[in-house]
Amino acid sequence: MNCKIIFSDIDGTLLNGERTLSETTISEVKKVKDKIPFVLVSSRMPKQMSYLQKMLDTLHLPVIAYNGALVLDQEKVLHSTEINLELIEKIISYNEERFDGKIHISLYHNDLWFVPEYDFWAMREENNTKAKPDVLSNREVLVEWRKQNIGAHKLMLMGDQRLIEQMFAYLNDNFSEKLHIYRAKDTYIEVADIKVSKLTGINVLLNQKYNYTLKEAMAFGDNYNDMEMIQGVGYGIAVANAREEVKKVAYGLTFHHKEDGVAKYLFSFFKDIL
């Protein structure tokens, strides 16, 4: 058996239809994780992942957050790539001038999450991820971050579908060479530095912590930001609800995330050794 480490996306992959971990998933991951590291890799911030790690008993294992922009081994930062503040200011200015600030822009750095107001979008994201944001205007965050000389690991833009479509076009027309611009949903855009991806995060862990190759890694995913990871590892597994483009590059397929697809694949693949 050549699989030595497992990576899993969270939303739309590991979580069930109630956006939590099923008892089946918890049970199967716990069977595997002491022999084969089970690492969460997500666009989420670290504290939006740690409560899931606690349920899985994997708090001692690393996480890949913000689509690879931040890689943590417990409290130790193994890798960090931030979005330049000047780019962030241009996006904020466009939102103010073109949309009168109607697009909600969340700003993230490590375990900091700032929202301009505690609105529908902030409450929705809090409900989905079990983390509570701090309320501070985008401009005030920029002032504070300039003092601290830090940038953002991720921007999350949320709003009416029509406005998000216009913002998505603007971002791609102006920043596609510097930023990853990912349409997570019709009403969401996620932004990270162009140099990072889930696969770059995996490579950080394989190079700095685990003496394994990509061919010895398994990864589960469903969406466009999982494609490079799914294609890059030896065992890239797409859940049944994955984008067709993801399925086409996958090594294997498993059940829908609402049907415990990750757990069922783990049981089938590792049943002879666990």
User: Could you state the oligomeric state of the chains shown?
Assistant: single chain
Share in helix: 25-40%
Q: Strands of the biggest beta sheet: in what spatial order?
A: 5-4-3-2-1-12-13-14
How many domains in all? 2
Brief synopsis:
By secondary structure, this protein is an alpha/beta fold.
Describe the protein in words.
- The chain is α/β, with parallel strands linked by helices.
- The protein has 2 domains: 5-80 and 196-271, HAD superfamily/HAD-like (Rossmann fold, 3-Layer(aba) Sandwich); 85-193, Hypothetical Protein, Haloacid Dehalogenase-like Hydrolase, Chain: A, domain 2.
- It is built from 10 helices and 14 strands.
- Helix 2 links the parallel strand 2 (38-41) and strand 3 (63-65).
- Helix 1 (23-32) packs parallel to helix 10, helix 3 runs antiparallel to helix 5 (138-148) and helix 3 crosses helix 6 (161-175).
- The longest helix is centred in the middle third of the chain and has 15 residues, at 85-99.
- 44% of the residues are buried.
- This is Haloacid dehalogenase.
- GO terms for molecular function: magnesium ion binding; phosphatase activity.
- Pfam families: Hydrolase_3.
